[in-house]
Design brief:
The protein is 41% helix and 14% strand. With 365 residues, it is α/β, with parallel strands linked by helices. A 7-stranded mixed sheet has the order 2-8-7-6-5-3-4, sandwiched between helices. Strands 9-10-12 form a 3-stranded antiparallel sheet, covered by helices on one side. Helix 4 links the parallel strand 3 and strand 4. Helix 10 runs parallel beside helix 14. The longest helix has 23 residues. It starts with a strand and ends in a 5-residue tail after the last helix.
Length: 365
């Protein structure tokens, strides 16, 4: 039987979320921009979803902009929020790093320490005279390392700089209201919280947001294109559920993650290392003496679904930029495996998966 340990890449759609979406996929299928009854019903669902996301995050409905995914939200925020250059951490998701490179005002980089944390001092050292936006993620998608957003935000406020945070990996384990209280903008994704693929959001508080996609009046004229009413309704419901249940989710995933790690670390000794400190409870990044693609393939054959880091870059032969930023060698940066845990992961699965990892690493050879 296969064991899925790649919840950081995507989560399965909850049955309750699917039921929330079905009416908008079937009888209420109208275009939310249409003026007839079908359109009005779809538009009502979209605006209800906007209100639910706003309530969950502690912001105004007018500050919620729906997107197709977290990557789109990252691009919109990083490329078009504020003026001047952007300062990003060197452990950001590829969506943020790539968007920063395309920002008209230019980019500077704040370095993380060897534990994977980006301090406010590191951000301050990286600021340019014209920096108008700082982008630091809440939870690193490879190591799970929690970033000190409150301290970085305090620095930004003193400098009069906007603060953006990629919260795609944070919504199941951290309080969004607390994050939004210190950040000017955040990005979210539905399929990381047991919602549908194809929906996300950019939340911008009290700011001026430039248009992203031309072609229509959707999202207050800032993002043209037919709104996926079913997906955003499912997203809002899934996000609400994730935030309400995040403390239990954190307790459960920490329990199975720690059980898994204790068995692997004990079984392999010096041949494995856990990466990062102050981590989210659902992510375990381990560097193996003989890791990399070959180990991932053996794990797959053994029925263990894991990843080599971000799901968006698993087919690349390049070493992990996060591991390199943490001071690892290129060889070490290619030898890591990310195991991520969810609400369906049982202790029995965690134990079986750990034994399979030890076996795939040739512990008995």
């Amino acid at each position: 039987m296969e064991i899925y340990l790649d919840y950081a890449a995507t989560t399965p759609l909850d049955e309750e979320v699917l039921q929330e979406m079905l009416p908008l996929l079937k009888e209420n299928f109208g275009n939310a921009a249409s003026l007839h009854g079908y359109g009005r019903r779809a538009a009502y669902a979209v605006e209800t979803a906007r209100e639910r996301v706003a309530e969950t995050a502690g912001v105004k409905p007018s500050e919620v902009f729906f997107t197709s995914c977290g990557t789109e939200a990252d691009n919109w925020g990083v490329r078009l929020l504020g003026e001047g250059s952007v300062c990003v951490s060197n452990i950001e998701h590829a969506a943020v790093l790539s968007a920063a490179e395309r920002r008209a005002g230019g980019v500077s980089y704040a370095a993380c320490n060897r534990e994977g944390a980006v301090t406010a001092d590191a951000v301050e050292r990286a600021l340019l005279p014209d920096t108008g936006l700082v982008a630091v993620m809440a939870v690193n998608n490879e190591t799970g390392c929690l970033q000190p957003l409150a301290e970085i935000s305090a620095l930004c406020k003193r400098k009069g700089i906007l603060m953006f945070s990629d919260c795609v990996q944070a919504a199941s384990v951290l309080g969004l209201k607390e994050i939004c209280s210190v950040c000017d903008a955040i990005s979210l994704s539905a399929h990381k919280v047991y919602g549908p693929k194809g929906a996300g959001a950019l939340i911008v508080k009290n700011g001026t947001l430039k248009p992203l996609i031309a072609g229509g009046e959707q999202e207050r004229g800032l993002r043209g294109g037919t709104v996926n009413a079913a997906a955003v309704a499912g997203f809002a419901f899934a996000l609400e559920r994730a935030q309400k249940g995040r403390e239990e989710y954190a307790r459960h995933t920490a329990r199975v993650r720690d059980l898994f790690e204790s068995i692997v670390l004990s079984g392999l000794g010096e041949r494995v290392r856990a990466d990062g400190e102050n981590r989210a409870p659902n992510i375990s990044h381990l560097t193996f003496a003989n890791g990399g693609i070959a180990l991932l393939s053996r794990l797959d054959l053994a029925g263990i679904a894991a990843s080599g880091g971000a799901a968006c870059s698993v087919h690349s032969a390049r070493p992990s930029h996060v591991m390199l930023a943490m001071g690892r060698t290129e060889e070490e940066a290619r030898a890591g495996v990310r195991f991520s845990f969810g609400k369906h992961t049982t202790e029995e699965q965690a134990e079986r998966a750990a034994r399979a990892v030890i076996s795939c690493c040739g512990a008995n050879e």
